[in-house]
Amino acid sequence: MQLYLLRHAQSVNNAQWDASPGFQYRYSDIPLTDLGRQQARATAEYLAQTRPASPVNVYNTDNRKGFGFTHIYCSLMLRATETAHLIAERLDMPIYGRTDLHEWGGVYEVEPESGTRTGLPGPDAAYFAEHFPRVILPADFNPAGWWNRPHEPQTDVPARARRVLKFIRKQHLGTDDRVLIVTHGGFINLFLDTLLGVTPKRAIKNLANEQWFVTNNTALARIDMGENFTGLIYLNRTVHLSDDLLT
Fold it and tell me: Which domains are seen in the chain, by residue range?
């Protein structure tokens, strides 16, 4: 199987941070910027390309033959879902939404003075049906709002990443599936740590020490998995973005 991790396109929070590094205010669950939508559409065009006659080797490690996705999964946070939906529209595919692919913390707001983080409901089923009709909601979706729980401590994220990896292996290992996951930069970091056998304690310490796998908006990572093989083929690939779209 081939697994592809895609960070969402530029969000409003990303744009504010880029304009003023260190900016502390954040929206709890925000859509893409206009630039982010351009990024997502450029990504969709790139992923839709196919060159089956390309003379590259059978492993197609540079994806010169194309991608040929069989499954798309996405975080239910708006920036990831909107990115995935723009891609899925171009590829004419459904999207499987999952409640475990979100960014650290979940959907929450921060009280400015105390720093208290309070969980919020998140969009409900009707919202997804209206705005993202290609998304198939998961069985554990709360119709009143998919999050609806407290803020997630960072120390809980490694265990969630392990659950996602276990799910992917159970569903797709030993097949020719090509799986795209549209998610978030922080989650990609801890997912890769899990894949590489980094302990949860070490993974959290790495983040505290600012030791990161850096990913641009809509950057791709590819991981090939077999019964006795796991290979990180590439990371932070942005060849599909022109200079003016790179963030």
Answer: 2-245 (3.40.50.1240)
